[in-house]
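Hi support team,

I submitted a single chain yesterday and got back a structure, but I'm not sure I'm reading the token output correctly. Could someone confirm the output below corresponds to the sequence I sent? I've pasted both exactly as they appear in my results page.

Thanks,
R.
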Amino acid sequence: MTTLVFVHGWSVTHTSTYGDLPARLQQRAAAEGLPLRIADLWLSEYVSFDDAVTMADLVRGFDRALRELHLHDAQFACITHSTGGPLVREWLRAQRERPAIHSTIRLSHLVMLAPANFGSALAQLGKSSVSRLQAWFQGIEPGRRILDWLELGSTESLSLNLDHIHGDDPADAGQFLFVLTGDRPDRAMYDHINSYTGEDGSDGVVRIAAANLNARHAVLSKGRAENPDTLSLNVRRAPRSAFKLIAGAAHSGERHGIMAAATTPTIDAILRCLRVFDRNSYAELCDAFAVENAARDRDRVEFEPAGPFPPRLHIHDPCSLLLVRLTDETDEPLTDARFLLQAGTPSNPDWMPQGFMLDRQAHSHARHVIALFLNHAVLAGSERIGDPRNSRKTLRAALDAHRPYGALIQPVDLEGLVHHAIAQTHPADDLLDLLGPHETTVLDVVMPRKVHEGVFRLIRSLAPRDFRHPEPGPTIP
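Hi R., thanks for writing in. Yes, this is the structure output for that exact sequence:
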């Protein structure tokens, strides 16, 4: 390794955001025999706080900056934070798709710290009038175009991630991607006006599942001929990526921030990533991280001090992010359709387990795109959670799964010449199979479009005929 580039996140205005991470990483690397000198470290300064700047603009700027390094081996490794992860991934895609325009410099290792790969629930709030006013007082803009990319379910973020899910495995080409993310918010940075900053299942800014690249793309569409209003499920899984939870780390902050705090666990994990040199060593690290994540999930109890009052209990259950896009077979958005999860046999929305839904957020511009934040442990069932201070005390009783899980889709236009019908998943399909703990699933629901033959008829009568109120007739097969 000869060059290491650091790329910060959204709305950063000072390189102090990197904290001691570059220096501490160089010191540890030198002590352990990794050839990394201070002269090989480069810190990014990019502008995301200008409303005119887009992700594509930043990709162009990043490409130009890399060219000016004049790397003697035309290769580098990269450590990113937050929005820096998607930015570098967008550059990698542009490099693949438009090689004549972008440089041929090769990225060997991409280590993403708390990346907003699927966006952040906070992006909508960052575009609010209050946030814009606060940014104005600070002499900057909120960076609206970048926040558009970061909104959960945005067209741009889904395009990048679906390309990844359906694309080739980067590791087969000797390009290694890693995600390291904190497992809880920094309680001292909790914003009492915005509960997302203290949301369990996140690091206070980015949900764990939204950082993870081990994602799925599922499609619910018309399948079995015996019932055209029953939707069948098809699922595609992304290439396996290295993913590790850093226990106790948060998104930002000098004390617990995964980058600024530069704790020993974070430094250790980064160095393990940088030591990967081939497909086999990458697979071994993926396996090791999975074992360590499972151990963290078993030790999921946190007691938050509350001054003179009893401590607040947090059970850090594995969660799943489900991004639902509701369209019909002509790709028309169904903005007013209801998407309901249901459980049991026969399926019933009232039988979903208590506490399964943590949050629901519709896209601000595309109302047919909905982000559902789900407690995977509640859906899958969970063992009894005991008090680590007293093993005989139960903090939460064992939870039973209510499988199988299905979906019911209720359009608003149930009649007319052109309309949609109520549809549901096939009883043989269990939606829990497409949800992974700490993972994101993009679910495309493609509804059948009912077109009746009354939209177009041929008649023989030459006499004048008023057809302002046509009979719909049967549906066109």
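A quick pointer for reading it: Residues 318-453 form one domain. Let us know if anything else looks off.

Best,
Support desk
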